[in-house]
């Protein structure tokens, strides 16, 4: 193995370690601080505001983060944003020691931390093709998915334990140490191993021209435009499950909260299993075909979710049924996300990667608040069956339209060779 490949292998694991710390840190912070707000105020509205502080900044500022990731050296963006995260949490710790912890301070820290970590995430994701060799782009993307899924499972568990057994100051100190370790690891990485920094032409663009160029690039690329559209659609319909799962299981079917926690964790377990599958699998040949298959499976599972409301199933059977469904849903989500990540890494040129991933981040989060509100009303007025069945059918129809034969042929011409060639081969 030559020196460059050894360095790429080192990057693969340092990337995983750094993403692990960042993802786990965010998951632990949001869960523990949300518990603190509920304990302090007893208000669900205050809890919801803290969650909005994790979504709204990403929705608004992600394209700007993408521009910064393309405009400046990515290593500098990653290290700077991680140091800022460290300073933000250190500031909250100092404020807590001197003045005590307040809800307003938590809101401000959550919003600022979301922004700084968004810059880290966009810059890191857009750097994968510079950090590792082409043969391991899929593996790096799959590891990224696995880390996010692991943090979804482990973050609330660790956050709950720290909240129950440690003072809030100790929790923040652990958080600061984790960010410090991440900065130390990232400082050893070479973000130009498989590529160079920005060109002279890019330097001439001002901020608005650069951001506009990112949107124009997506508009001119039908495949990437379709992927952004799919991100909007999928995240909107995911709201149907995120809102409906506790409503159906806890309120309607009276599932014990302990069993509900297990079922909810299995969703992330399915995503983790999907990440493991793609990390050892050969590179996908037709990524959009995987995306289409995953979305069709997701839409079918969404309609299947209401089966225990239609057909009588014993309590233990319901728990097993939903455990299996959530496992498959988690797997299908990764089956969609990983090929999308691989396709974008290989199709988008380095000079636009940050902006494309930033815009994709906005697309992935923009409709979620609207989705939560709309589905909240729909579950109240139409019930779970009247909400999930039409949503599943509509997602199926939208998937078949957005990933129709014309788009699939454009992305993967090998799937539908011209008929003339087939005729010619018949007479050879």
Secondary structure layout plus pairing:
Blueprint: H1 3-41, H2 44-71, H3 74-99, H4 103-125, H5 128-131, H6 137-165, H7 168-186, H8 200-203, H9 207-219, H10 222-252, H11 257-280, H12 287-304, H13 307-310, H14 315-347, H15 350-366, H16 368-402, H17 405-411, H18 419-426
Helix pairs in contact: 1-2, 1-4, 1-6, 1-7, 2-4, 2-9, 2-15, 3-4, 3-7, 6-11, 6-14, 9-15, 10-15, 10-16, 11-14, 12-14, 12-16
In short:
The chain contains 18 helices and no strands.
How would you sum up this structure, described in words?
- The structure is a single chain.
- The longest helix is centred in the N-terminal third of the chain and has 39 residues, at 3-41.
- The protein has helices at 3-41, 44-71, 74-99, 103-125, 128-131, 137-165, 168-186, 200-203, 207-219, 222-252, 257-280, 287-304, 307-310, 315-347, 350-366, 368-402, 405-411, 419-426.
- The protein contains 18 helices and no strands.
- It is mostly helical.
- It is globular and about 60 Å long.
- 85% of the residues lie in helices and 0% in strands.
- The N and C termini lie far apart (45 Å).
- It folds into two domains: 1-192, Up-down Bundle (Growth Hormone, Chain: A), CATH 1.20.1250.20; 204-410, MFS general substrate transporter like domains (Growth Hormone, Chain: A, Up-down Bundle).
- The mean pLDDT is 80.
What is the H level of CATH, i.e. the homologous superfamily of the largest domain?
MFS general substrate transporter like domains
Tally of separate helices: 18
What's the β-strand tally?
0
- In CATH, what is the class of the largest domain? Mainly Alpha
Number of domains: 2
> What gyration radius follows from the Cα positions, in whole Å?
22 Å
Amount of beta strand:
under 5%
- Unreliable sequence segments: none
Main β-sheet, in a few words?
none
Overall SS class: mainly alpha
Share of helix among residues? over 70%
Global morphology: globular
CATH topology of the largest domain: Growth Hormone, Chain: A
Report how far apart the termini are: 45 Å
The H-and-E topology, N to C, reads as HHHHHHHHHHHHHHHHHH
CATH architecture of the largest domain: Up-down Bundle
**Average pLDDT figure:** 80
Main location: membrane
Organism: Shouchella hunanensis
Subcellular location: Cell membrane
Transmembrane segments: 12-38, 44-65, 77-98, 104-125, 146-165, 171-194, 227-248, 260-280, 292-313, 319-344, 356-375, 381-403
């Amino acid at each position: 193995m030559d020196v460059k490949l050894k360095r790429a292998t080192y990057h693969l694991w340092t990337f995983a370690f750094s993403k692990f710390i960042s993802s786990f840190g965010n998951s632990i912070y949001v869960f523990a601080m949300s518990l603190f707000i509920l304990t302090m105020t007893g208000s669900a509205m205050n809890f919801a505001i803290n969650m909005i502080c994790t979504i709204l900044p990403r929705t608004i500022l992600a394209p700007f983060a993408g521009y910064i990731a393309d405009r400046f050296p990515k290593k500098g963006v990653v290290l700077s944003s991680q140091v800022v995260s460290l300073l933000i949490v250190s500031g909250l710790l100092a404020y807590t020691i001197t003045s005590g912890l307040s809800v307003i301070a938590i809101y401000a820290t959550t919003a600022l931390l979301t922004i700084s970590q968004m810059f880290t995430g966009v810059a890191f994701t857009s750097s994968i093709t510079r950090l590792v060799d082409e043969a391991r782009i899929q593996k790096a993307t799959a590891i990224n998915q696995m880390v996010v899924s692991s943090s979804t499972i482990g973050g609330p568990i660790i956050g709950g334990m720290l909240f129950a057994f440690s003072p809030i100051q100790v929790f923040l100190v652990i958080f600061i140490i984790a960010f410090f370790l991440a900065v130390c690891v990232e400082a050893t990485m070479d973000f130009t191993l498989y590529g160079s920094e920005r060109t002279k032409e890019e330097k001439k663009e001002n901020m608005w021209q650069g951001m506009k160029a990112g949107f124009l690039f997506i508009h001119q690329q039908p495949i990437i435009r379709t992927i952004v559209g799919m991100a909007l659609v999928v995240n909107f319909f995911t709201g149907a499950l995120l809102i409906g799962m506790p409503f159906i299981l806890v309120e309607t079917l009276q599932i014990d909260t302990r069993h509900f926690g297990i079922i909810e964790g299995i969703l992330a377990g399915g995503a983790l299993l999907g990440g493991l599958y793609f990390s050892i699998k050969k590179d996908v040949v037709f990524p959009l075909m995987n995306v289409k298959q995953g979305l069709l499976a997701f839409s079918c599972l969404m309609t299947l979710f209401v089966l225990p409301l239609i057909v009588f199933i014993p309590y233990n059977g319901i728990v097993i049924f939903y455990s299996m469904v959530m496992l498959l849903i988690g797997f299908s989500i990764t089956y969609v996300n990983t090929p999308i990540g691989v396709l974008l890494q290989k199709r988008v040129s380095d000079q636009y990667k940050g902006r494309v991933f930033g815009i994709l981040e906005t697309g992935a989060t923009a409709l979620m608040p609207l989705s939560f509100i709309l589905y909240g009303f729909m579950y109240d007025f139409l019930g779970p069956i009247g909400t999930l069945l039409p949503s599943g059918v509509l997602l199926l129809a939208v998937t078949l339209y957005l990933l129709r034969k014309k788009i699939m042929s454009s992305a993967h011409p090998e799937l539908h060779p011209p008929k003339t060639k087939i005729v010619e081969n018949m007479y050879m």
